[in-house]
User: Fold this.
Amino acid sequence: MTHARIEIDPSDTVGEVSPRLFGTFVEHMGRCVYGGIHDPEHPSADADGFRGDVLELVRELGATVVRYPGGNFVSGFLWEDSVGPRDQRPVRLDAAWHSIESNQVGLHEFAGWAEQAGLELMMAVNLGTRGAQDAARLLEYCNFPSGTALSDERRANGAEDPFGIRLWCLGNEMDGDWQIGHKTSYEYGRLAAETARLMRFVDPGIELVAAGSSSAAQPTFGEWEREVVRLTAGLVDHVSLHAYYEELDDLPSFLASGVGLDRYIETVAAILDEEEAALGERMQGRRLGISVDEWNVWYNTRFNEQDKEPLLTGAWHHAPPIIEDEYAVADAVVVGSLLNSLVRHADRVTMANQAQLVNVIAPIRTEPDAAAWRQTIFWPFAITASRARGTALRVAADGPTIATAAYGDVPAVDVAATTAADGRVEVFCVNRDAEHPVEVSLAGAGSVVAGVRDAVVLTVPDGHDRFVANTRDDQPVRPEPLDVRVVDGEARATLPPLSWAAVGVDLGTRTA
Ligand code: AHR
Assistant:
């Protein structure tokens, strides 16, 4: 068996892990809202039509922030349609997803649901078909206390207190030619700057996210960020990146997706650093954060080649099923390593949103006539979100490597670690080797492992192959206890092939 050694030095820190790293995303798309979080016909639904079983799983997932209402949807969205008496709201065409939008879940209903779920609302404004004035009007509606037409309209619609939404995304994926209102970096940068300026006049307390690239493979990647940063200098706080990964007949490369995300984040960080240095005082002292506000495993090629054309040319439906990917074990392992990448970059990644929350490429699935269930990818998210708090540590595994076509030789064991105020260290490990187990030893730098708490592993369950998924009737993929021994001051465990694990340890002083 091969062996990997991980040395933990609690003084070698990367930065504080923002709770916002564990955000999620709800878009008016497919069955994420209607038929997902909301289904008045479901036995668990509350008076507003929100499913109680879904809400419970959302709380268990432990996400912290929710991006809303899109996604591509937001680029054609008229927010006024979504407020006021439900029976008077217009039914509209959603051109982004070729769907009928009933507006039965709108701003007030969603804000109430997010509060119940313990999620901070991160609102996106429409910079596809609309612009600065509309964004400022929405902000005034949401955040101004009272005494103006828009704030009083909000109060008349049932929200006496302002929503107090702090985080705002300036449009969505405006670099993509699929986007309603797609723009060049110059067109977008100017619009984002003027929208940001006006929004800050209305509410100086907000944080703004400029739209970066929708993928590292975009032909404009790099130049887009440079021009947008120059044009919005001093006006925005974060720049987004979106990153989706899928297995394309090359499992080793897929399992190394975290390396892809590492490089993507580091490239964007280097661009931001260069531009900020060149802009000097024009940055007004701001250091831009990176908002990874859409990331996940998404079988996008299958969608583009098989499902997209029939969806976009077929009949218009309300909440048609769209990209309801079913996740296997490798997908969960990759989600674990993408989370590791986010934690490793805690000094620069200020927030991140797994896309999406329910049904649409989601950790939680529903059907109208069944209880909601956890997909395989639910587990690494929930466990990392609950444990990776405090400070991220600089850590690497010294051990075997794996050859990949996409990224060259990569470490077989992917690792991230955090330390909390109580001294407890959490280590998150992935064995990217799909064929062989690897023995991992965890050692303290100048200290010993004094004890182990809560060690779990997620892998292919006995009696199944690696393609097993959790379905409405059977959910065999779940974390199991991991056997960890403490030997000579080191914690030792065997990671099965294709696995993700979380191990909590206490470090103690080495005695002579
Ligand atoms: O999350 C699904 C879609 O992916 C979003 O609507 C869009 O922003 C991205 O392309």
About this structure: The two ends are 31 Å apart (CA to CA). Residues 2-10+391-509 form a domain with the Immunoglobulin-like fold (CATH 2.60.40.1180). DSSP finds eleven helices and 27 strands in the chain.
